[in-house]
Every structure is written in structure tokens, then in C-alpha cells.
Amino acid sequence: MFNKNIFEVCAFNIQSAIIAEKAGAARVELCDNPVEGGTTPSYGAIRQTREQLSILLYPIIRPRSGNYLYDVNELEIIKHDIVICKELGCDGISIGVQKIDGEIDTDKLKQIVEWAYPMGVTCNRAYDATPDPFKALEDLIDAGCERVLTSGQKSKAPDAGEILHQLVQQAGERIIIMPGAGIKSTNIEKLIQQSGAKEYHGSARKAIANSMQFANPLVTDFGNVYISDEEELRKIMACMN
């Protein structure tokens, strides 16, 4: 069981979270706003997803898009959202926080880990925005994170197999390296061979057609609804195991 590779699905709505569980995912990172890289989902979204899901649930805690340099008010928002996740029975959170020079803000992250306990803490791709991934990894370990979601500081994880392998070796048993970004059924086998990681992350998302019978063609600011592709997720699971 401990040698089995597992997959975490980045779900941007409850429908995708349910699809993830059906397809065999081990964990869901619940987010809002896919176009902006994911922000904190609403209380209602977290609660309803937790009630419907039996696998692990890690909402992202990110009060806005942009960077991960947070002021005092934003840190209070983060604290309140963490408390809600704990009250709703979430298993952990996904979060990141940086200093103005791009390095991990270890002091703030330690505080966040304390707020989250006994939930687990994954550092999200704030890690990929740091100037030195090897130093940043030690910072995350020092702060008490259990895993890091990373593309190896490339746009897509499959382009960073060697760097990810180095990070896996450096991490040892101290923290989990979870490659994510750009992972598909067509490239995950090679990434597994290159990186040696045991956990992987992806959304397998696709935009779905508007099901409304009427849509005003002059109003175009509705955006798209993205949902996880169950067939693609099943292919990914098959490639992994």
C-alpha cells in the first residue's frame, strides 16, 4: 500500500470532486477561480463537498490571485478560513506564503501550520515562485508542511523530471514531493520514471458547454465552467498503477 502511487485532483467545483472520487483519486484539492490559478472556495462549497466526499479533502486557502505576499488583514482572512475548514472536517489545506524577496515566509508558514493543526498542510505552487527551490524545500520542512505541490519551477511538471528527481532525493522521508501542472495520461508514466515521486496532482479539466436554452449574445462575461474529465482521470489512474 505504501508503494502505491496516488493522484490528487484539483477540483474547481463539487461536480469535479465527485468525479475525482469515482475515478479513483485519493484526495481532492478544492479551489475556486481556475482562470486565476485557484482561490479559496466558499463556505458552502467546502461544506457541501465535505458532506458528499469520502476521500481526503484539502481546500486551497488563497484569499486572492496574484502573489503570495499577504498583509495583516489577509492573514486574518486566512486564519478565519482555516478555522472553518477545521470545523467542517477537512483533512488539510493547500497554502503558500512568501516574503517580498520571493523566499518562503517561514515564520508566517509556521503560524499557519499551527492554526491548521491537526489538519495537514500542503504548500502550493507559491513554492515554484521562490528563487531557490532547494533552499525553499528546507524552509517548508522547517515550517512543518507535509508535502509540496510543484512543477519543478517549470511551466509544466513533465518538463522538470530531473529537477523533481533531485527534490525527491533531497526530501527523503521528511516531506512529500507532489509534481503537478500539465500532467496528462500521455506523459505521467515518463514523469513517474524520471521523478520517482509517489504522489501526483492534476485537474484533467475541460470546459463544458452552456446548458441554458437561452443566452444573450451581447452579454459575454459569464466565463466558462470547467469540470474534471472522468475518462481522462481513469486513464491517468491506469497509467499510474
Can you tell me about this structure?
The chain has 241 residues and is an alpha/beta fold. Helix content is 37%, strand content 17%. It has eight helices and ten strands. Helix 6 packs across helix 7. The longest helix is centred in the N-terminal third of the chain and has 16 residues, at 72-87. The protein is globular and about 55 Å long. The chain starts with 5 loop residues before the first strand and ends with a helix. The model has no long low-confidence stretch (mean pLDDT 96).
Provide the fold topology.
Layout (H helix, E strand, L loop, with lengths): L5 E6 L2 H10 L3 E4 L12 H10 L3 E4 L12 H16 L4 E4 L10 H11 L3 E4 L9 H11 L3 E4 L10 H11 L4 E4 L8 H8 L3 E4 L2 E4 L16 E4 L1 H11 L1
Parallel strand pairs: 1-2, 1-8, 2-3, 4-5, 5-6, 6-7
Antiparallel strand pairs: 9-10
List the secondary-structure elements in sequence, H or E.
EHEHEHEHEHEHEHEEEH
Strand content: 15-25%
Low-pLDDT stretches are none
Number of helices: 8
What composes the largest sheet? 4 strands, parallel
| Form type | globular
- Radius of gyration in whole Å, from Cα? 17 Å
Helix content: 25-40%
By secondary-structure content and strand pairing, the structural class works out as alpha/beta
In spatial order, strands of the major sheet run: 3-2-1-8
Arithmetic mean pLDDT: 96
Number of strands: 10
Distance between the termini: 11 Å
